[in-house]
């Protein structure tokens, strides 16, 4: 029987964001900083919602899960990318690539539908109808701010995905895709906790309360004594 020549694929070569070696350490520091802030921001948001009973509402339930999904899906790609910045051999195994792609796409779709569910929970149609009935510009601005933070997050996430997969192909498709992928992989999970905390009165008030309680507890609690009680 004739033998057919076949090659078994065991790993893939990753091109990375740039092929300039002098930029690799700088990019490593930059994305490491972004990843640390993303982890702290999303974990802090989850902890804050869990600790403050005033945030135990459907909207913040979705927000807590959104922070968890952001934390997970950015963690599927960032460690491998950080490793490649400092490695001469920029490869990933076939199994590793399959698992990473599966988790990343699954979590990305989860965030896609979660943002849609949060929009439904906010009742955008009722908010827009209420805004149209308000005569003063100041009143409309205050009413619009109730869903402004969510609209910012939705625009950033869906906008970059739209540019990634709907735009027509060009000669610079690969380079443009790298830049766009950075936004929905790193920038969106980084900004979501900041957007929802800085533009949300309930979250800011809960954060102030938690910090105030910790300060008071630190001041009132006496330092542990080193002397053994007789």
Automatic annotation (TrEMBL):
Residue ranges of every copy of the G-protein coupled receptors family 1 profile domain listed in the record: 41-121
Bilayer disposition of the protein: Multi-pass membrane protein
SUPFAM superfamilies documented for this protein: Family A G protein-coupled receptor-like
Compartment(s): Cell membrane
Keywords carried by this UniProt record: Cell membrane, G-protein coupled receptor, Membrane, Olfaction, Receptor, Sensory transduction, Transducer, Transmembrane, Transmembrane helix
Transmembrane segments: 26-49, 91-109, 115-132, 144-167, 179-198
Molecular function in Gene Ontology: G protein-coupled receptor activity; olfactory receptor activity
InterPro entries cross-referenced by the UniProt entry: GPCR_Rhodpsn, GPCR_Rhodpsn_7TM, Olfact_rcpt
PROSITE patterns: G_PROTEIN_RECEP_F1_2
KW Hydrolase (keyword) present: no
One CC-aspect GO term: plasma membrane
Protein name according to UniProt: Olfactory receptor 5M11-like
Organism of this sequence: Mus caroli
């Amino acid at each position: 029987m004739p033998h057919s020549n076949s090659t078994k694929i065991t790993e893939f070569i990753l091109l990375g964001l740039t092929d300039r070696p002098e930029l690799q350490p700088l990019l490593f520091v930059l994305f490491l900083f972004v990843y640390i802030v993303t982890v702290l921001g999303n974990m802090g948001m989850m902890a804050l919602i869990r600790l403050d009973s005033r945030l135990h509402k459907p909207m913040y339930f979705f927000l807590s899960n959104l922070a968890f999904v952001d934390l997970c899906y950015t963690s599927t790609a960032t460690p491998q990318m950080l490793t490649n910045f400092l490695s001469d051999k920029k490869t990933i195994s076939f199994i590793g690539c399959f698992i990473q792609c599966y988790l990343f796409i699954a979590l990305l779709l989860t965030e896609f539908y979660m943002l849609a569910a949060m929009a439904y929970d906010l009742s955008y149609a009722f908010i827009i109808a209420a805004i149209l009935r308000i005569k003063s510009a100041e009143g409309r601005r205050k009413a619009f701010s109730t869903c402004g933070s969510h609209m910012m997050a939705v625009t950033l996430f869906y906008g970059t995905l739209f540019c990634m997969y709907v735009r027509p192909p060009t000669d610079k498709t690969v380079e443009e895709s790298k830049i766009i992928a950075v936004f929905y992989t790193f920038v969106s999970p980084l900004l979501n906790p900041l957007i929802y905390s800085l533009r949300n009165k309930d979250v800011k008030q809960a954060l102030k309360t938690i910090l105030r309680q910790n300060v008071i507890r630190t001041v009132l609690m006496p330092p542990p004594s080193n002397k053994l009680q007789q």
